[in-house]
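== Sequence entry ==
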Amino acid sequence: MTLVAGVDSSTQACKVVVRDAVSGALVREGRAPHPDGTEVDPPAWAAALDRALAQAGGLDGVAAVAVGGQQHGMVCLDDDGAVVRPALLWNDTRSAGAARDLTAELGGGQAWADAVGLVPVASFTVTKLRWLADAEPANAARTAAVCLPHDWLTWRLAGAGLPGGPGLEALVTDRGDASGTGYWSAATGEYRPDLLERALGHGAVVPRVLGPAEAAGSTPGGVVLGPGSGDNAAAALGLAAEPGDVVCSIGTSGVVSIVSTTPAADPSGTVAGFADATGNFLPLIATLNAARVLDATAQLLGVDLDELSRLALSAPPGAGGLVLVPYLEGERTPDRPDSTGALHGLTLATADRAHLARAAVEGLLCGLADGLDAVAATGTPVRRVLLAGGGARSEAVRRIAPAVLGVPVLAPPPGEYVADGAARQAAWVLAGGEAPPEWPRPGTERYEADPVPAVRERYADVRDLTAPRLR
């Protein structure tokens, strides 16, 4: 049996899976937590990777390994390869002002969309570099190379930091992660060093972008390294998403992406024109309100999530006209950072737990459906939706989703799909060929239902009714 390993270095933890390269069968796995916070010293990721690998039985007998990692995190290295300062993570918002400045300096959203397929927001690496140049000019001046979390871990696995280990010139990445920096274009496949210099104030070494199945070297022990990818692209690979498939991840935030054969460029900034890990593209939107909408509603009703699901399924479609606009943490898509949640249509007939539970599930799904409309508008017809994330474990979410989203829904069994995608990529690197290996996914459930347009129409009325008004 040939074994491959996949790593998911996420915001919260490092997960490792070891799988059979041919069948994809899980052989062993491990996990270790990451520190809390929106900035992390990269050696903490390395320590967590070491612990997770040890729990998974190490790399003994493993032929290849690849790393999936949280996108956008800014890792700055000096001339000697030492980390300049703790990495700013995707969820660190101190660079919001830098995003506005960079957008204006280049001439607005259209100019950025034309250049790199996205418009700067606080999560993207380019805005964090501008923040560094403004807030910590000495650290900016020391920065000789900039990479991302998965790039840095791949470099470390190749022996960086060991005597005689690789230097900055050995840094590598892939299309999926490079496309989230703000200075690499998915459409052209090239870096925009002028945009990096605009942000940082000077040039810097950036990782070489490898092809989807191109080896990134090997570990000192001879294990082949895959190029790895960012978390969203790795998850799509782990789910075996194909062109026209929408991946809808319902976690702390909601992520809706579509595998496309053509690049996207949205000047409004709603859709980020990312690349995927196979040579295609991955237009993506993110919402702030997802699984925690279910958590908050369950807490309000004094029930657990299973009972919330049962209640929601006991109420009629449309919840009798009761609508929850679930902007409990503001919202990013649409851009309403100061919005709050709104409940509309409460009557004596809908003033019960079942109707509120149904309204919460439908409101969550309608918010994601708005995102689905946005990614579909980039030009790729939607074939089906793949549900992932903790919120997808809700039976009510799975059963109501096709009626709200208007397309068939597949619900794969819960799993570590970022790590699985990295492992599948590692198997692809070993096998070569035009496509990654086909790994069966037993336990996937398919849900279909006639669309109920009235649910989204009613939701849209209330959503627009609660939109901020100019004074």
Summary: The radius of gyration is 22 Å. Residues 322 and 351 are 9 Å apart (CA to CA). The domain at 3-227 is CATH 3.30.420.40 (Nucleotidyltransferase; domain 5).
